[in-house]
């Protein structure tokens, strides 16, 4: 992948003063966002405005370091700092082999503000602030310098003093050691309990402002409403640093970093030069724009993999979810060639790119002396259990046009990482799910980066499970095809089913950060009154069309097809799953009201796919097709049937010819959805398509 960075320096403000005589103001390229930096006698502060409306009031930026010896912990900042700001404008243009838009070109403005101690050690750091048309980002940079070669960080204390009392949506967590699989809560900021960890992204809705234009996304009511301002807070380019959470402390949101596991309270240990991740604030009056945005990948480094010809995103089966179902056969089901062959043949018949070797009946496919899938002291991913010939399995799958990938517990993998990847490549594996990571301290962050780097060298893709949210790193390491970090349909196996409301909540929280791994494809939908926990052949809530739409709504480059073959073949809607792509060239959000419904449109080549999902109330959603290029398209619609309330697997498949000036009406059942394929026609095809 060729990454081209075009940076234009149009001016510099060279100030070497004890303090700035005036504030520093940074304005986004389109003029809608304004950021103000202000040094004080205690620590720097910043503020953010959107279209003249204040959204972040004066908020602190602070760093607390562990000092040598018995010196008490101290802030870097104080009186008399020497400040030297440099302004520039830039544009970043690049391509993404996996991403919501394959081609990106975004402009920004930037201040790099050098801050130096006037006495003692004369330590220096740099605050970099950027303004894009869809948000603001800032980070600290620690340049190499003679009087400071390392640091130990106790707290970062980035503040977010939001104006008014915005409606907040977040996942509240009990601690730092977590799979990041929590439900989301919506409540006013004033009602948030103090010092409780909030996972990121956090989504915020500020009250309506009559001076702003409407949401720009059609609804069933008026298209022009008193526009709210929407925000989301997350981080980008999380490398060699601790993961960030938010807490409400003394009335404002502030950062809280995951501590290193040794228990001494240190969050980050670093050798200079070093840099923090970007702290990111999406800002706008159209919430769907956050899902179209490339802001997080913009803030990451260019691709580190020189040859990407081997990287093949695609759908995968995952038989653990369905309970390892096989038909009545002449072979004994288990961790053997025949059981895996059954699923490989299913993938080959239906164009599913990958079969995942997991194990069977709670036993891993590799030698493991732990309990069930948990690792033991002698577990070894390079040694399949007796009776499983991994090379034979990979060769057979390759003869059918299917790739083999495996599930592994991260501790077993990391114990012999280089040896494992050497062996995986010799067998012919294409990738793996790395599971049960459950941490985001600096040590775990570095482990994940190392896994990605070494996997790329062996032409292996990675799916992180039980892991923290993405931070745009797919630009640098596109072999990370997806990651979890959210509650999903695996919970339908237990008495904790995912509801359509849960799916909607994920869209404007976790999905904002990027690829989101779900156990998709459950084809046994039931009304809520009929749900019961089934570890084998799980039931799902929401309609069949809701499930189909989730393949478009979610961003994932390794979407799962989790049910067993007989659950799919011959069933309504399976043709859509077979057809839907795994990578995209463009993403648009033609209709969205957070908490109510969302329609997401994604383009692959000339064709578009649209997924619409609904909450617990029947709705009719208008979907304008303005995102289409001029011309005619054959629209194949998969819509909830009239009896979907009691028979949620029923759907209606219809076809029509549409163009960019049309608006489709999606009639959605409670917990319903609609999936659409829009195939572009040339003139001859268009004429043929409308003949009786």
From TrEMBL:
It comes from Puia dinghuensis. Residues 26-302 form the Glycosyl-hydrolase 97 N-terminal domain. SUPFAM superfamilies: (Trans)glycosidases. The keyword Metal-binding does not apply. Residues 320-485 form the Glycosyl-hydrolase 97 catalytic domain. Pfam families: GH97_C, GH97_N, Glyco_hydro_97. This is Alpha-glucosidase. Residues 1-21 form the signal peptide. Keywords: Calcium, Signal. Its cofactor is Ca(2+). One of its GO terms (molecular function) is carbohydrate binding. Monomer. It comes from the Bacteria.
